[in-house]
Amino acid sequence: MIKSNVYINIRKIRELKNLTREYVAEELKMSMSGYGKIERGEVDLTVSKLIEISKVLDVSIEFIFKFDVSIFFNDTKGQ
Fold this sequence. Notes:
The longest helix is centred in the first third of the chain and has 15 residues, at 2-16. By secondary structure, the protein is an all-alpha fold. The chain has helices at residues 2-16, 21-27, 32-39, 47-57, 61-66, 70-73.
């Protein structure tokens, strides 16, 4: 389950930062279809590629693993 969350988190973080797939793929020096396969979890993600992605997204690897988009949308405290 964690493995699939990493792929989902990469896509969500990219979207929240308003970065396009094209931009991230270009920064990673890879094809857009190759990068799309990463976001869809169709390829195994190497540690070195994860480090590169974290640099492009300007977040730590730990952030990618622990990211939970629901913290932005499901805050019911104070209601």
